[in-house]
Amino acid sequence: MSNTKTFVYINRKAPYGTVYALESLEVVLIGAAFEQNVKLIFMDDGVFQLTRGQDPEGIGMKNFSKTYAALGDYDINQIYIDQQSLDDRGLTIDDLQALVYEDEDDDWNEKSSIHLVNREQLSDIIESADVLLNF
Amino acid sequence: MPTLHTVNKSAFERNSLESCLSVCKTDASVLLFEDAVVSGLQNTTVSNQITQAAGSGIKLYALSEDLKARGLSEERVMPEITLVDYPGFVKLTVENDRVQNWL
Amino acid sequence: MKFTIQINTGPYTHQASDSAYRFTQAAIDAGHSIHRVFFYHDGVNNATEYSVPPQDDRNLQQLWSELATEHNLDMIVCVAAAQRRGILDENESKKNGKNGVNIAPGFEISGLGQLIEGGVQSDRLVVFGD
Questions:
Q1: Do B94 and C32 count as a contact with CB atoms less than 8 A apart?
Q2: Residues with Cβ < 8 Å from B67, sequence gap 6 or more?
Q3: How confident is the model at residue C96, as a pLDDT?
Q4: I want to staple B2 with a disulfide (CB 3.0 to 4.6 A). Which of A43, A130, B27, C91 is the partner?
């Protein structure tokens, strides 16, 4: 299909303080219907979007962090997390929720959608984009 | 397949310029506009980053209308940075293959 | 070349709407076509006809509306963002039992899919925001 483009979403902001993390997820989910090639990058404070155990009840907001787990069902399984952003914030990959998908090309085996990347790899991912959406 | 990166926040306030430069390919272009034009002034704490980026081949630009609005004359901008106006901004988006806006 | 422009912030607090307006105009002047202008997040606030800035200030809503008329621009306001922030067209107003309609001429309320479609159809997406 000639109309398939690579959409790269770059998430750089922490959740709840601003609406961007939530909206990014909305666009990704709505965009899934367009059957484009989708990659998500989490860098800078964006890595906080995926922390485990979020509980925003006390600030009166909806907990949307559970929705990330559904991304695999929408065939969104190219998720790139910037290692340096984790390091800079005293986080490790274990602080983040696991995101998986079922690989239909490999007997529906469950695989991790998450790839830890460095800045050089990030620049390649950005370079692979036809459309860059920033949140 | 070069990328145009745009940065609109002062490097003295946010890390977007730093993040941008850390993922820039050497054939990339970076446009500083809105508050980010202050990041292109001479003798600042980010001047080294700009010099280094320019040295690696990255092309750096600043939007002249935004500099003028802030009372910052051309002479105060680092020589590594080329000034462009809005038509020049449009041209940069056309000459590159994609635009990455570091908001 | 075909552009989609995205605007994420309302007028007056941030420069983004001003920058986007100038960029859009420069792109049109250079002979490019604007596939869509998409107003998202607080950017939907650019679309209220109820804004009354002082006479000696620019009126961004009016500038956008005029640009839309002049160049037949497709200016889309994200429906979910608009509903949250009280930007209503006649349909939305009636549907939600409100009294007023404040969407300005040239703006149209539609879904987020229009942003993705803009990305698919355009050669360049340029985003202005905070």
A1: yes
A2: B37, B40, B73, B74, B77, B83
A3: 94
A4: B27
Bridge partners, residue C2, by sequence: C33
Interface of A with B in 65-104 (CB under 8 A): 84
Is residue B68 over pLDDT 90?
yes
Q: Does position C89 have pLDDT exceeding 90, yes or no? A: yes
**pLDDT band at A110; cut points 50, 70, 90:** very high
Instruction: Provide, rounded to the nearest whole percent, the portion of chain C with pLDDT above 90.
Output: 100
Asked whether the beta carbons of residue B91 and residue C23 sit closer than 8 angstroms, the reply is: no
CATH numbers and ranges of domains, chain B: 3-102 (3.40.1260.10)
pLDDT for the residue C77: 98
Among A19, A34, A134, the residue with its CB nearest the CB of C116 is A34
The residues on C that touch A, with CB distances below 8 Å, are 40-41, 80-81, 111-113, 115-117, 119-120, 125, 127, 129
Q: Are B86 and C26 in contact (CB under 8 A)?
A: yes
Note whether B46 and B53 are within 8 A (CB): no
* A1 pLDDT more than 60: no
B46-57 burial, b at 16+ Cβ within 10 Å, e below that, comes to: bbebbeebbeee
User: What's the first-to-final CA gap in chain A, in angstroms?
Assistant: 28
Q: Choose which CATH entry (3.40.1260.10, 3.90.950.10, 3.30.1490.100, 3.30.1050.10) describes domain A6-134.
A: 3.40.1260.10
Domain that holds residue C61: 2-128
Tell me the pLDDT of chain A averaged across its residues.
Answer: 96
- Catalytic annotation, residues of C: 78
- What confidence score (pLDDT) does residue B1 get? 84
